[in-house]
């Protein structure tokens, strides 16, 4: 008899990987932020001196956003304000603690168990190495793959957000997966999203150092104050959220973010088109008991 959860997990894993490849590996080059935008951000970062946690949200296919993250890492490290760099791009449990500042990129990638297919090192490596060279630990914050199946079944996660915000998160999951997920998978995949946010928050909290800032880098959806990582922080825990946008920001994101870092729009690209064709040509087979 087919393991229903395993079957679902394999289908969802393949789709998530394909989405990552579409949004990162084949993304067109985009223009870096202009000097005025960079200067304004540097001033804001200086103003936030001492904030325990700074969350940066990116669009994965905008290279200007990865440059922003690299520059922010370097600026905080240069002023001895960076406690740790926590990243969505590596799983929790993998970190660079113990590596010397002169460690080579191969050693760093091995320590983080870096998956270049989903997260191209040419995009994220400069940010990671800026921390390593400064002697600052880099820690994976994402939910380990082997725990995703359990998260899908953990109905207690459904109660973390209010009913209306849970509905918003489910809508975001539906849209983020190009409306390709069967409706029965929306709730399980939303639980995975919630579990990932919880894990990222835990790693960031564990990395705290008095007087310094933990920098957490993830996709825009993960850092959204009303739905993402901030909802897993203790009440009144001081933090700031900065979101990078290469297109028109939604009103909700504009209102929620403490800072909006605008970059040049990307060339129009339908990341879902290829996935739709693949889905139509090879639709997932229903598991036992679902026919």
Could you give a short description of this structure?
This protein has helices at residues 4-25, 35-47, 63-78, 105-112, 121-133, 148-153, 163-176, 186-206, 220-223, 251-256, 273-281; strands spanning 53-58, 82-91, 138-142, 213-219, 239-245, 259-262. By secondary structure, the chain is of the alpha/beta class.
Content-based structural category: alpha/beta
CATH top level is Alpha Beta
Q: Give the overall pLDDT as a whole number.
A: 87
Task: Please tell me the CATH architecture by its name.
Answer: 3-Layer(aba) Sandwich
Mass-distribution shape: globular
- As a percent range, the share of strand residues is 5-15%
- Alpha plus pi helix count: 11
- Report the biggest beta sheet as strand number plus sense, adding barrel if it closes: 6 strands, parallel
Strand order of the largest sheet: 3-2-4-1-5-6
Taking pLDDT < 50 over at least 5 consecutive residues as the criterion, the unreliable ranges are: 1-28, 286-291
Number of domains: 1
